[in-house]
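Batch job 17 of 40 flagged for manual review because the log was empty.
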Amino acid sequence: MGNRVLLVRGGELPITSGFGRAHNATVQRLESGLVSGWEILQEVNHVMDDVGALKRLRRRWFTHPRNVKNTARHTNPDLIHITDQEQAHLAPKNISCPIVITVHDLFLLDPKIMQTDWGPIEIGNRNSGIVRSMDISRLKRGLNRADLAICISKETAKHLAQLMPKIPIQIVPNSVDVEARDPRLNLRERPELDYDSTHLLVVGSEDRRKALGFVFDVISELDPETRQNIVVHKVGAESDPQAELRLKEKAEKLRIRLKWHGKVDEEKLIALEQHVDALLFPSAAEGFGLPVVEAMASGCPVLVNDLGAQNEHPPASCILPAFDISSWKNAIMKINNERISQSSDHRSPREDLILAASVYSAKQVSNLHSQAYSKALELKK
């Protein structure tokens, strides 16, 4: 029998959310036996339900932390792993085993305004109100109780080292099921994508940080014939109806062909990744940039802003000067021209990108995962 880890999070988030997706990948690595010497003792979370704001706050600040501490005392785990920093307040006080907290990003704990060539972009929420300010204080105190922080990228590790330099850090990136996405092994049926257009995929929310509006600004600079060749496919759970409406109105005003998919299941997302002509990911800031790695694993060409952490994954040829409209315009024109000149109706998968994504396979990441847990045990001695 190996060491036993108590996995902790707040609400039982679906895998369509970033935190839910990352938690699920952590569970799968442990359940598959890939994290050498470790197994799941128990998961502690709660259902996502609409119990009202006051009851949600009571559960977040009091009921659930008490449940985590009681469970830890009764089960006596070898390690407690809180799988995202938004639940850092759940780190129990006066516990004998080490506590590990995965830090995906610090945008809400350390908000700022980023000045870009596309204008200022708010990263996090600087005007969060008194309740959220109190909540963030709890998160920071909980994070300081961690024996080790697992950061999912070099960029996140750098940010945490600046913000909380006393916390030991280990980098363990998100893992991706690269075989399931590899079109050479598991090619999905082509979704409803006409063969006479260039199809560009964007994945994410409507938050300005994700910069979907920048994509529209770039495409609006193309000549009318090229612009009409392009269809932009937007995937991602809607987070703000007003922002969604503004983006749709902007696309219509600029005469951009936009197909708004909203939230889609995993199979449809993979099918789009395997068959569109490119993923555009001009985000201003990411903790990791999972859509980039997932698209790469699907053999899909990617274009990203030269900003952390999405620029840690693809080859240099896929990284563009941040918010430089001219560079993005030229790159999209190249993709459009390649699609027109290709001899086949089906785009060949980018094998170099599949290879680059393979370092994020569950097997590869599990080795780092195991090392992080071992380091936490050593630090606790």
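Reviewer: the log was empty due to a logging misconfiguration, but the result itself is present. The chain is about 40% helix and 20% strand. Unflagging and moving on to job 18.
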